[in-house]
Specification:
Blueprint: H1 2-19, E1 25-29, H2 33-47, E2 51-55, H3 60-66, E3 73-76, H4 79-87, E4 91-92, H5 97-102, E5 114-127, E6 151-152, H6 159-172, H7 174-186, H8 196-204, E7 210-214, H9 217-222, H10 228-232, E8 234-237, E9 248-256, H11 262-273, H12 275-285, E10 288-289, H13 298-301, H14 322-326, H15 329-339
């Protein structure tokens, strides 16, 4: 009787997998379509499994919470959002030995709830004609009065900066973090606005000398003929290399709790974790891979080479636990409100 039950269970699983074989994997993502589409196309060519993706800029967690059955897989540019999704019970653990084997353990979510597929450092970009790298040192130094009216940054409330300040609050403590936020605000050359690339444009135009940006924007701008002049005049500095290290932004992939196509969704996640997907991701987006068997793109690995201790893209990381960082988000927003960060 026990063997009959086991056989029936296996048959049910097989039939379910066969029934879903041609069903698309539904993805909900807040990443750019141009970055993810080539990955999905390659996955479909390799497996025959189609991918249907919905791309959005904001509100990823609210959307999946409001309609849990809409997606099989979540992909976010900010892994703190994936940690929020886990805490809200919107994810289910993957059951993939490949992901557990291929992805660096530091980049695996609690209980196999998600994994970080790539990361990028949030660094200091500087005008090479007006700032020398030896003048730079730490994130906290950007709050020094000597940089008065020299700094450009996008909205303090953008996910990238919320993630940065939340990690600072864990690593430095709330009091020091608030002082840094106040100092950054005091040193603004203009109101925070635009995306990261616009800050580089402002450095090129002479409106500011420094900016906080994600490292991968430098090679992305170099690939764009219109934006190449912005990048050519800008240097990249990894802060806090003699202290705790630079903070990183992590993107992440998770399996939704309501997924109706778990087998195919897991295949997509394994592709993104494996060497094929990681190679495409790192060379297309210029992020750092989380699979130790994959090398970073040379275009990212050569940045910061003029800075002592930075070679082949290797730098000291201030690695903050996502679950801990998420708990600081509300307090960080309060700090931003108190200093009226987005007003000058």
């Amino acid at each position: 009787m026990r063997y009959l039950a086991a056989g029936l269970a296996f048959l049910a699983l097989t039939l379910s997998t066969m029934a879903n074989a041609n069903q698309p994997v539904r993805v909900l993502a807040d990443r750019t379509e141009s970055l993810l589409k080539p990955l999905f196309e390659t996955f479909t060519k390799m497996t025959g499994i189609p991918v249907e993706a919905v791309y959005m800029d904001k509100g990823l967690i609210d959307r999946v919470a409001g309609n849990p059955t809409e997606a099989d897989v979540l992909i976010t540019k900010d892994a703190e959002l994936m940690e929020i999704a886990r805490a809200k019970g919107l994810l289910q653990p993957h059951n993939s030995d490949l992901i557990r084997r291929e992805i660096d353990k530091r980049f695996q979510g609690p209980g196999a709830s998600y994994f970080v597929d790539a990361y990028r450092a949030r660094l200091i970009f500087y005008a090479k004609a007006r700032v020398k790298p030896e003048e730079l040192s730490t994130y906290a130094d950007l709050a020094s009065p000597r940089w008065k009216e020299k700094l450009c940054i996008r909205s303090g409330y953008h996910d990238y900066n919320i993630a940065l300040f939340s990690q600072m609050s864990v690593a430095y403590g709330p009091e020091k973090t608030r002082a840094i936020i106040q100092g950054l605000h005091d040193n603004l050359a203009r109101e925070p606005k635009g995306n990261d690339r616009e800050q580089a444009k402002m450095i090129h135009a002479g409106k500011c000398d420094l900016a906080l940006m994600n490292v991968y924007y430098h090679p992305l701008m170099m690939d764009n003929p219109e934006q190449r002049p912005w990048a050519e005049g800008i240097g990249v500095f990894y802060p806090d290399q003699r202290q705790g290290g630079a903070f990183i932004m992590r993107s992440a992939v998770g399996l939704t709790k309501a997924s109706r196509n778990v087998a195919a969704a897991t295949q997509l996640m394994e592709f993104l974790a494996g060497k094929d997907g990681q190679n495409i991701m790192t060379h297309l987006t210029y992020q750092f891979p989380t699979n130790p068997g994959v090398l970073a793109s040379p275009k990212i690995a050569t940045l910061g080479a003029e800075q002592p201790g930075i070679r082949d893209g290797k730098f000291k990381v201030n690695f903050v636990d996502l679950n801990t960082a998420v708990k600081e988000r509300e307090a960080v927003v309060k700090m931003l409100n108190e200093v009226q960060f987005d007003k000058r």
